[in-house]
Amino acid sequence: MTSDSPYSDLDRPPLREPALNKAVGRPGGLWRRIEVVAETASTNGDVADAARAGAQEGYVRVAEVQSAGRGRLGRTWSAPPRSGLFLSVLLRPSDVPAARWGWLPLLVGTAARTAVDAVSGVPVKLKWPNDLIVVDDTPSAEATAGGSDPAADAYGAARKLGGILVERVDTAQGPAAVVGLGLNVSLRREELPAPHATSLVLEGAKAADRDPLLRAVLRELERWYTDWSVTGGDPMASGLLSAYAASCATIGRRVRVELPGGEPVVGEAVGLDGDGRLLVRTAAGERAFGAGDVVHLR
């Protein structure tokens, strides 16, 4: 058995494409094809190319490792092979007004949080707009080892478990959404990319098998996306607004919103508006933010 065999690390077995398609795909369902590849530069880039080539909604591409994974604001995302879930899905929400597409990162976060909590038992929270985090006041030694880093302050008393990247792609069939999700599953202490990162294993997950995790994520995503789409993307009618707000660790906290090319804004995050924008109460009044880097202040 060679060192690059997918079975060289028995704690990290490979995902099996036929079993996933059989378990999650169904007639009339959202997921048309789940493709698992050993390695790629970026699953979001792959799915964007597929969308431009005419791929239908419901295409899923999963990579065992990404060589150029991307996060928000041009950040990189890296992890050892088979140590997490790295996937992108193609959605074409043609019945949803463009103004409501801003809810997609929040929808995916809600679906992923629900699935991960149910399978692993780890109490996941959401950091607006698109991070999955674990929050407490006494971070474990395993999750915080590796020295200090100013970037850790962005999470307050929290550790990052995963992230979401949604990109709009213009295609001949109309606009499409490419939704990427990265989730740290079995990263060990010495493999963490940053001091504020963590993994399900380091958080004491009762189960950290990627196969049932991926199945649960896709099933929850299909459920939330279907409910959201049939209501025309209405966050209240679909229940998305209340579900996201109940799990969002940002709401109720003092935050600093860092804006590209502008002065940071400090205040209390008090809720979300109908477009999924973060409402922040400042000394000068309440403001709504649809984008920006949010820092949780201690």
UniProtKB/TrEMBL annotation:
Which InterPro entries does this chain map to?
A: aa-tRNA-synth_II/BPL/LPL, Biotin_CoA_COase_ligase, BPL_C, BPL_LPL_catalytic
Domain of life of the native organism: Bacteria
PROSITE patterns linked? BPL_LPL_CATALYTIC (PS51733)
Q: Which CDD domains match?
A: BPL
Q: Name one GO molecular function term.
A: biotin--[biotin carboxyl-carrier protein] ligase activity
Q: Does the keyword Aminoacyl-tRNA synthetase apply?
A: no
Q: What class of enzyme is it?
A: ligase
Where is region (Disordered) located?
Answer: 1-22
**What Enzyme Commission number(s) does the record list for this chain?**
6.3.4.15
Mind telling me which Gene3D superfamilies this protein's record contains? 2.30.30.100, Bira Bifunctional Protein, Domain 2
Task: Name all BPL/LPL catalytic domain ranges.
Answer: 24-229
* Keywords (A to Z) from UniProt: Biotin, Ligase
Could you identify this protein by its name?
Answer: biotin--[biotin carboxyl-carrier protein] ligase
Q: Which organism is it from?
A: Catenulispora pinistramenti
Instruction: Supply the source organism's classification.
Output: Bacteria, Bacillati, Actinomycetota, Actinomycetes, Catenulisporales
